[in-house]
Automatic annotation (TrEMBL):
InterPro entries: ATP-dep_Helicase_C (IPR006555), DinG/Rad3-like (IPR045028), Helic_SF1/SF2_ATP-bd_DinG/Rad3 (IPR014013), P-loop_NTPase (IPR027417). Residues 30-311 form the Helicase ATP-binding domain. One of its GO terms (molecular function) is ATP binding. This is ATP-dependent helicase. It comes from the Bacteria. The keyword 4Fe-4S does not apply. GO terms for biological process: nucleobase-containing compound metabolic process. Belongs to the helicase family. DinG subfamily. Pfam families: Helicase_C_2 (PF13307). Keywords: ATP-binding, Helicase, Hydrolase, Nucleotide-binding.
């Protein structure tokens, strides 16, 4: 077996690396893989040599490739070889945890590549912080709850976490969401990291699961796999972490691959989001007042706290509920903007006062740094809010506190500067990157000015393997009855895709009063990879989901029917409302492109191999059929049969 730090081919001093790489890739796809039982695919070979140019010239490339083209093998092969050549790992950024699982699971693409090419690949996962248990939340909850799932998680925390005298040699990685598959999403939120946690001041920080896992993945030699959200968090926090004497979340890489790269813009917006929790500012400033500070500082703090409370009272009173979203819509009045402006001025004053307080050496440097960091964060968020048309805003509320969220409306300028100005191979891979072969929309939204592109169609004969049925919804109750009949006819073995969690829960409420001769699995009841694994191995189950439009890969008889409960239009939440507000034709520029892209992704869940077959059912209202029938028919791989 080839060691994981050596190239799988030789390069003499007089030879060019890329010429030898091209020879090796040709051997892999023309000889080695076919000898191991893999089909020789012209589409795969064409894509491979397109990617070679992107790596050679260190350029961005949009590699659009349909299902079954073997695109994952292609980008993995180039990324691994180039990583070993440069001595830096490649970053594989996936849309979500489900896609990550497809790569690293037993029998997944990386393991297949290892076996086929006799390689030992060093691959490590860099998961987002929400994927790790938070000891600051878990420990106190475990001491007062009777929730057995939470108690079981607490029981599995290693002893060294509680025993600070334990030697470093006995430390082990722990705390990954995947280690506790029995925990529902609702319960996990109670014990997992969330944006309100102040990790820099946490007494558990050196023993936390995310800290220990971070130390592990940094030393990867071939691949580091993360989510788009995590990659963007790395980009936006890189400089501030360096200033604070911390390492960036990810090490320097040789290349970056964005799998399902069409979703990167949403992750970039999310990564640049500012969250202002009502309790957090009060806590920081109250802590400041507890230090030995000057009287002038105390007066400014009191003014900020008063304005802050008045501001949040106004936000809570005027925020409106948005159906299908946990984001409360805010309509900023002149009064709100005026208070925000006064708050901004007072925070600037306090930052100046902090300099004087620090010079008196009455506050520890550590506390000065924490207070200054938070005030600058708060100040920058307010500056976005005070500029016209630069931000998207909403309010989130739970049982204990309110959080104002500020997200930049456009991210292309920041991405252009912070990401795509670097001379690196950036590989975008997906079946849905272009609009009718045109990549300019995606490139523009990401700030990419120079790029290569290629499109490769799926090799599958959809006409023989798939039928698509269109259904008109007369009423919700009638739709559920007919949808249930479709599940019975298929004896389970179906994926039902919903446009939102609320829609799935409406179906679940109805389905709970029916009798099913097969298992009904619902997203959120347990860790997602466990749910998918149960579905794949059951062979007569139904999987209900609102997120698995992308990334789900279940070949074979376990999935022979995909039912799309409603057209997946974007929600009416503040993010998409902002996009609509700045579009000349919101329906044609925002709603329909999003729906079509997601619909194409959902249909792509059915046929994953040459042997797969089955039916697609798409449910629409009469109005949707009237308005969007032709658009939908144009992008379908086979003719739609209307029922």
């Amino acid at each position: 077996m080839i060691r994981n730090n050596s190239l799988p081919f030789t390069v003499a001093k007089t030879e060019n690396f890329f010429e030898r790489l091209g020879d090796y890739v040709g051997d892999v796809f023309y000889d080695i893989l076919p000898e191991k039982g893999y089909e020789l695919r012209d589409e795969q070979i064409y894509m491979a040599f397109q990617l070679e140019q992107a790596f050679k010239n260190k350029r961005a490339i949009f590699a659009e490739a349909g299902v079954g083209t073997g695109k994952t093998f292609v980008y993995l092969l180039y990324a691994i070889c180039y990583a070993r050549y440069r001595g830096k790992p490649a970053i594989i950024s996936c849309a979500d945890e489900t896609l990550i699982e497809q790569l690293v699971k037993q029998g997944g693409d990386i393991e297949k590549l290892e076996k086929a090419l006799d390689l030992s690949i060093d691959v490590r996962l860099a998961k987002s912080r929400e994927q790790y248990v938070c000891m600051k939340k878990l420990d106190p909850i475990a001491n007062q709850t009777d929730n057995q799932d939470i108690l079981n998680v607490h029981d599995e925390i290693p002893d060294f976490v509680f025993d600070t005298s334990t030697s470093m040699k006995s430390f082990e990685r722990y705390g990954d969401r995947k280690e506790y598959p029995w925990v529902s999403n609702e319960t996990w939120e109670k014990i997992a990291w969330d944006p309100l946690q102040q990790c820099s001041t946490c007494e558990w920080r050196h023993l936390s699961g995310q800290t220990l896992n971070r130390e592990y993945y940094r030393h990867a030699t071939d691949l580091i796999i993360c989510s788009h959200d995590f990659y963007m968090e790395h980009v936006w926090t890189k400089e501030s972490r360096k200033r604070e004497g911390q390492l960036p979340l990810l090490p320097e890489s040789s290349s970056v691959v964005f799998d399902e790269g069409h979703l990167l813009e949403f992750a970039a917006q999310k990564g640049l989001t500012y969250r202002f929790n009502f309790e957090a500012l009060s806590k920081v400033l109250t802590g400041y007042m507890g230090q030995d500070v000057r009287e002038d500082s105390l007066y400014v703090i009191e003014d900020i706290l008063q304005l802050h409370e008045e501001w949040f009272d106004l936000l809570r009173d005027t925020a409106a509920v948005v159906e299908g979203s946990n984001r409360l819509e805010i309509a900023f009045s002149d009064n709100m903007i005026e208070i925000a402006g006064r708050l901004y001025d007072k925070v600037q004053q306090l930052l100046e006062q902090l300099v004087f307080d620090a010079e008196l050496f009455t506050i520890e440097d550590y506390h000065v740094k924490i207070i200054e960091e938070y005030l600058e964060f708060f100040s920058y968020g307010l500056s976005i809010l005070l500029k016209d048309n630069e931000g998207i805003y909403w309010l989130e509320e739970n049982n204990t506190t309110s959080t104002l969220v500020i997200m930049p409306r456009l991210v292309e300028e920041v991405l252009k500067k912070e990401v795509f100005s670097r001379k690196l191979p950036f590989i975008f891979s997906s079946a849905t990157l272009s609009q009718a072969g045109d990549f300019t929309h995606l490139a523009g939204s990401l700030g990419i000015e120079a790029y290569d592109s290629c499109s490769v169609a799926s090799p599958f004969d959809y006409g023989k393997r798939m039928t698509i049925n269109g259904h008109i919804e007369a009423s919700l109750q009638e739709k559920w009855i007919k949808l249930g009949k479709q599940l019975h006819e298929n004896k389970g073995k179906s994926l039902v895709l919903f446009s939102s969690m609320e829609e799935m829960n409406l179906f679940r409420e109805w389905a709970g009063n029916q009798t099913w001769p097969f298992s009904m699995l619902y997203e959120g009841d347990q860790e997602i990879s466990k749910t998918v694994r149960d579905f794949q191995t059951n062979h007569s189950a139904v999987l209900c989901s609102y997120n698995l439009w992308e990334g789900l890969d279940v070949p074979g008889n376990a999935l022979t029917r995909v039912i799309i409960s409603s057209l997946p239009f974007p929600p009416k939440d503040p993010v998409f409302q902002a996009k609509r507000k700045h579009a000349e034709n919101p329906e044609l520029e925002v709603d329909v492109p999003y729906m079509v892209l997601r619909l194409r992704q959902g249909i792509g869940r059915l046929i994953r191999t040459n042997e797969d077959y089955g039916e697609i059912d798409i449910w629409m209202t009469a109005e949707e059929v009237k308005n969007h029938k032709k658009t939908i028919e144009r992008v379908m791989p086979v003719e739609v049969e209307w029922q």
